[in-house]
Amino acid sequence: MSARLLMTAAVTALVAAQPVLAQQTSLGKGEGQVDIVAWPGYIERGETDKSFDWVTKFEEATSCKVNVKTANTSDEMVALMNEGGFDLVTASGDASLRLIAGKRVQAINTDLIPSWGSVDDRLKNAPWHTVDGTHYGTPYMWGPNVLMYNTDVFGDTPPTSWNVVFEEMTLPDGKSNKGRVQAYDGPIHIADAAQYLMAHKPELGIKSPYELNPDQYAAALDLLRQQRGLVGRYWHDAFIQMDDFKNEGVVASGSWPFQVNILKSEGQPIASVIPQEGATGWADTTMMHADAAHPNCAYMWMEHTLSSNLQSDLSVWFGAVPSVPAACSDGRGMQTQEGCDANGLADFEKINFWTTPVSKCESQGECVPYYRWVSDYIGVIGGR
Amino acid sequence: MATHRLTNPLSDMFWRRPRVLLALLLAPPLLWLGVVYIGSLAALLLQSFFSIDEFSGLINYEFTLKTYGELLRPANYDIVLRTTLMAAAVTVASAVIAFPIAFYAARYAKGRMKAFFYLAVMLPLWSSYLVKVYAWKLILAKEGILTWAVDGIGASAALNALLSLPVIGGNSLSVSYIGTFLVFLYVWLPYMILPLQASLERVPANLLEASDDLGASRGQTLRHVILPLAMPGMIAGSIFTFSLTLGDYIIPQIVGSSRNFIGQAVYAHQGTAGNIPLAAAFAVVPIVIMGVYLWMAKRKGAFDAL
């Protein structure tokens, strides 16, 4: 009981200490630096590869020094932002709403970002960074989870459905897919199963793969149990998956354009497709801390992310799609229209973007929450 | 030297009250142990008695045993059982393999040979754990060097028979329990050899001679003299191999069939699910198992060999 009291007291104190911040209305001089929490590989200054640099010019033009702290998981990002001391974060769909709900990020004034108008219209009001019409960040990058496959095995008949990873079948090379396909080792993969069921079992009435009632959820788990029989090892780390395609005889799996591009560049017989059922995907947002110490530099950086070579070069570097469509074709960086299309630009409508499953869901009132997804997916992989 | 005095009030006090000095010296380490070490364990234990609300997914800060009850759900119980069995198998196998190596190194190897043995046992510990595990992934892969070598000597039928075994088999060594077991065995073996060797070196030679003089065969000497005397070292080694396997969460993620071990379950529940009570309850399991194990080991006198 005392622990509960203590918690309540702590929460009250936190809420009380939270300043009610109105969004900024004008931009002053830069404060000399900006501190950003980002995914690894997201903010390059030419140190990994000389030709990938989207920081140096910004620093020269604004004299805001860019300090980057990389984080490997969404939870790490949320933890760092709770700790404070940062101005910006490149938050994915599962972290962004948590940050907004926890009042760790502030609403932004899009008038202070001249290039806001160039953002993909489909992303401007995306639900993972816009709450009740208020914007909590600028879209950064997005990408689909594609079906990667081995072209030696599939030959002239590339897969058109996710059934190659969900149902036992004979592949074009005459051998079974058993033991030769993979699936993602994270509970969010349940959404991929749900998306497959949306197309193949419409009677279940699934409207969003992230909002499942107990019946729909049970059907998705059954499909995943069937998949367990086909999968030798689930993939968790992008580089281990690439190794499994090279040395373990894996020929098809859900994957990211990142792995596809690297394997192709190594001359491996690899291609990818977004199957007819559509795909799940991720979309990241640059969000500003509620107590950002360098708001002017932060606004300048947000403008920079939309207007410079960043969108173009980063989409090449990361195998992702720019949030500014013009970055694909106006030659500001290395990206080309073909490259954007290969990374999934044309398939936006087919993608269900990652959001955290919650119990109070929009489409049907009561859904299975995420923590159940975690424990049940562990069970499915364990053979239950 | 006007300032020099023959007595110093501080040292006088320490002389008169030796307990004060003792308390001052012990306070920092005890504080460290109490606050940082025991404190974090207590916080963990406390968390495991809370529960997660079924509907909202929020943590319910009221005392309950419900979370421990969840450990008994088939999927979670499987994880505990799987981890414990793996730890036991790795421990037994490393004892069996380590004994002849330690025995030779302790009683026969001399001079350079002895140095070589020490070096050979220690050498793997010098390189990064991750590098070793990734290397094993390549060795055990379906198209890896081991499969190639087995193919070369025409024994692939035997390998396939091994891999077709239910439960422990799989598509290739690197995606089966056998592979996970081999990597665990390799990585923790030195921790078994070293204490075993130390205890074997302490077996007095005259006891072996006496056993010989009294007409015991070599086998009898091994069973009735050497093994009992080496037992404390073996138990000390087994504490390492057992507890290290129990807590590891990286090897089963890289090599194996993706079925969770306790460490991975803790990581998944606290990291992505926010189900800290269940993660804490999972973390308590190895503590309990090791507590029982250490208590039994202490009764066998294992800690005399450390």
From TrEMBL, chain A:
Gene3D superfamilies documented for this protein: Periplasmic binding protein-like II
CDD domains named among the record's database cross-references: PBP2_polyamine_1
UniProt key word Signal: yes
GO biological process: polyamine transport
Localization per record: Periplasm
Taxonomic superkingdom: Bacteria
Single GO cellular component term: periplasmic space
Alphabetized InterPro entries for the sequence: SBP, Sperm_putr-bd
Major localization class: periplasm
Example GO molecular function: polyamine binding
Signal sequence coordinates: 1-22
Keywords, comma-separated and alphabetical: Periplasm, Signal, Transport
Name of the molecule in the record: Extracellular solute-binding protein
Organism, scientific name: Thalassobius vesicularis
Lineage of producing organism: Bacteria, Pseudomonadati, Pseudomonadota, Alphaproteobacteria, Rhodobacterales
